[in-house]
Task: structure prediction
Amino acid sequence: MPLSHDRSLGKRSGSDLQRCLPRTDGKQAPGGPGSAYQDCWPEVWKINEPIYALVLAGETLTFEDQLYPITRHGYVEDAYFTLCYSPLRNEAGAIEGVLVTVFETTEERRAKTALQASEAGLKELFEQAPAFVAVLRGPDHVFEMTNPLYQELVGHREVLGKSVAAALPEAEEQGFTALLDMVYRTGEAFRAEGARISINRNGEQKEDRFLDFVYRPLRDANNTVSGVIVLGVDVTEVRQNADALAMVEAELRWRLELNLIIPGRPIGRGGLSISALVGWP
Result:
């Protein structure tokens, strides 16, 4: 929407807008054609006055997504525009006015703001999730986002912006990167329960952890796989407790076989027999 203004800001022309700006609601602005600019667009004159002074002195100025409170639809609303102000010269080269090119970007700005709010909400959800979470992008599985539980799992290493292979080489050595490749290639999720991983959490010695997790594909607007989200729970303590219980049970059976414990005889203050305690006949 090109607009020209003479040096006195008293004459304007434009093919797509009314001669007096910025009545985008189809109504004539106060003052009418030929009136002073500040009478046509008083709500933004405090923004434009210093801009016109600079452009009339020979400068060209460009602004992207500039906020302008304008009156339309019967009330003042915040609108965003990308504008270019440049000197308008006559045949002799003297500046006689200002050429303004305007593109409204309000809808794009609102969509961007909504997207940012959505991403912030998603990040907060990840941060508070009772499971470890990581978002990986691209065929190299580059870390885009992790939550505190994932950082705890990997020993608080700096992983963002790095591929899984570079950030967690032990994971690649144990076949986890190959599983990510499969999910990215096929678009099908992969689940595991009680999977063991030897992970370097303290920078010195690897530690065995047991994990329940899922690798789930992420898709873009074209339904093309663009990444993988990792969701899981560290069940190491549960696994260790189960192993400890199994060891106690094995020890009791061994003692029974050696007749060190008489199954029917009460043990402890509660008077339970060992058979009743462990559910043996």
